[in-house]
Design goal:
Elements lengths: L2 H12 L1 E5 L4 H14 L3 E5 L5 H15 L4 E5 L4 H9 L4 E3 L5 H9 L3 E3 L1 E2 L2 H9 L4 E4 L2 H4 L1 H7 L7 E4 L7 H10 L4 E3 L6 H6 L2 H18 L1
Helix pairs in contact: 2-3, 2-11, 8-9, 9-11
């Protein structure tokens, strides 16, 4: 089995892809350690600030030393330059908020999992043309579960993951999975500004455990 398929299977098994960005290197490392301790084995750091690349390199270093079974990916990749920079830094997979065929080409050339963000059926179709195995529905808080229910039969067999509008709530999660998603992206609803600014790592640990348990019950 290729690494691309192993990572995809890990996302499907976990049912959740946690994601965040923080300027602080130390804070980023502590959040990663907390998520891992709570059971996370696939994680996305987002390219949303000036410290994203150096912080990612540090996370990779910590991952290699402490968490060898964790898949560490990078999100918010919109350009080939960003893709190449983080591939060089050792990312395991790439997540994007858009469909950029040039980024897809880079990922596909090296057999790397590329998860593009789509908002319309046309974007989904273009993503499929460029071999997207998993598609991020974004912004899912605007589109809602009804969007997935409405389009899933048009794209039979395609795997979808909403990001935005996903909450640590049994009813919310069951609604998303019932609509036809295979996993959910979990950002600020899990790794909140308070968690980051106040170092509320015990709260993050508890909420991560809860989210993982509720997701397994909702599948």
């Amino acid at each position: 089995m290729s690494n691309k398929h192993k990572i995809l299977d890990a996302i499907l098994e976990q049912g959740m892809l946690p994601l965040f960005y923080q300027d602080s290197e130390e804070g980023s490392v502590e959040i990663l350690r907390t998520l891992y301790k709570a059971g996370v084995r696939v994680f996305e750091y987002t390219n949303r600030g000036k410290s994203a690349l150096p912080n990612f390199k540090k996370l990779k270093e910590v991952r290699d030393a402490e968490m060898p079974d964790l898949y560490l990916g990078i999100g918010t990749i919109k350009t080939p330059a960003d893709a190449n920079a983080f591939i060089e830094a050792g990312t395991d997979f790439i997540v994007a908020p858009i469909v950029n065929p040039a980024v897809a080409e880079i990922a596909n050339k090296i057999g790397m999992l590329w998860i593009p963000g789509c908002m319309t059926p046309t974007e989904i179709s273009i993503a499929q043309e460029h071999k997207a195995m998993l598609i991020k529905i974004f912004p899912a808080n605007i589109l809602g579960p009804e969007f997935i229910s409405s389009i899933k039969d048009l794209f039979a067999g395609q795997l979808f993951m909403p990001t935005g509008g996903v909450e640590i709530n049994a009813e919310n999660l069951k609604t998303w999975f019932k609509s036809g998603v295979c996993a959910v992206g979990m950002g600020s609803k899990l790794i909140s500004k308070d968690v980051m600014s106040k170092g509320l790592y015990e709260e993050l640990f508890d909420n991560t455990k809860l989210a993982l348990d509720l997701i397994q019950q909702s599948k």
